[in-house]
Design brief:
The chain has 15 helices and no strands. The protein is mostly helical. Helix 6 packs across helix 10 (195-210), helix 9 (179-190) runs antiparallel to helix 10 and helix 13 (276-289) packs antiparallel against helix 14 (293-321).
Length: 337
């Protein structure tokens, strides 16, 4: 299957998922009430919520510096933040493509090997997945309502994600630390590859595993842990302050639950969580906390809209300011897809 065919297939699946989730999210919605709720929202709280989102992206960029440190020390926050925002901007158009473009951006701005930078993106996703699993595991401590009855698939999903993540982390960390094992494995693979591919495969494999070299710097591990907690704390604050925009009486504990459930929607391959976020966030608000359907959906619509549009504006600024070329970014991403 050619890269173009794979790209068209991914985009087709994304469009179908987005349309399906939007349909189920807005199905049988009382649109006049929905519009009144959207118009009547207090947008100062929404702006503050967006501020927390930007702060989380800034902390994410700061954490990325320490993941990249084994390849290049002292990378400036400006370029790191540019890479993060361009990545999210691309994700708003092409789901998951931002993770492929970010290594291209930081490679262009800082000269970091793109394969190694991609390895750090994989590390980020592992950290985010583990953080999400911890957040879901903590939900019974802050919510004693019909969580499992409302989302009966949650336990099975957590189990599957946990097993896969644990196995993947073990394999990657072992290969990153024991490079002699990696070389032996790559040598076996190279035997069945054409000669012209053997050397690039070996080089790219080691570059990719360089992205996991932060595990050899225990002095940074504690800081990376604190930064990861800060990212998710800011996410929860973002959810919490937006409650005030719609005059709900939900507390910070409710924000923890909504963040955990809505994260599932954001993780699905839809552009910027469009549709999937709307459905998961509104369903959680309505079925777990008794928020009326139109108000729950207006909350999801407004918070998603501000986050989406704001990220697009800032991402596009850095995209053009740093002279990022779409063709080069896509080509760079397809080589790793």
């Amino acid at each position: 299957m050619t890269p173009r065919t794979k790209r068209h297939l991914r985009n087709g699946i994304s469009i179908c998922l987005t349309a399906g989730f939007l349909y189920f999210a807005f199905y049988k919605t009382d649109f006049p009430t929905l519009i009144n709720s959207i118009v009547g929202a207090n947008y100062w709280w929404i702006l503050l919520s967006f501020g927390f989102l930007l702060a989380s992206h800034a902390v994410r960029a700061w954490r990325w510096r320490y993941l990249l440190e084994p390849m290049k020390a002292g990378i400036g926050m400006r370029n790191l933040f540019s890479g993060v925002m361009v990545g999210y901007m691309v994700n708003n158009v092409l789901p998951r493509a931002g993770e492929l473009v970010r290594p291209y951006v930081i490679g262009k701005l800082e000269g970091v090997p793109k394969s190694a930078a991609f390895g750090t993106i994989v590390v980020e996703r592992i950290i985010d997945t583990i953080s999400f699993l911890i957040l879901v595991a903590l939900m019974p401590l802050v919510y004693n309502g019909p969580l499992r009855e409302t989302f009966p698939w949650l336990d099975d999903a957590m189990t599957g994600i946990s097993v896969f993540t644990f196995a993947f982390v073990c394999v990657i960390v072992v290969l990153a630390v024991r490079r002699d094992w990696t070389s032996a494995l790559v040598a076996l693979v190279a035997k069945v590859l054409p000669t012209r591919w053997a050397e690039p495969v070996e080089r790219l494999s080691h570059d990719f595993l360089d992205g996991f070299m932060f595990v050899k710097r225990p002095q940074n591990l504690a800081l990376i842990l604190v930064q990861s907690v800060a990212v998710w704390f800011l996410y929860i604050c973002m959810v919490y302050v937006a409650f005030f925009a719609f005059d709900t009486d939900l507390d910070f504990k409710a924000a923890v639950v909504i963040q955990a459930i809505s994260s599932i929607g954001v993780a699905l391959p839809t552009p910027g969580g469009t549709g999937s976020y709307h459905m998961f966030a509104s369903q959680a608000l309505n079925k777990l906390f008794g928020v009326s359907g139109p108000v729950a959906l207006s909350y999801a619509t407004v918070t998603h809209g501000f986050g989406y549009i704001g990220t697009m504006i800032i991402g596009l600024y850095f995209f053009f300011k740093d002279h990022i070329k779409v063709s080069e970014a896509v080509k760079s991403g397809e080589q790793r897809a």
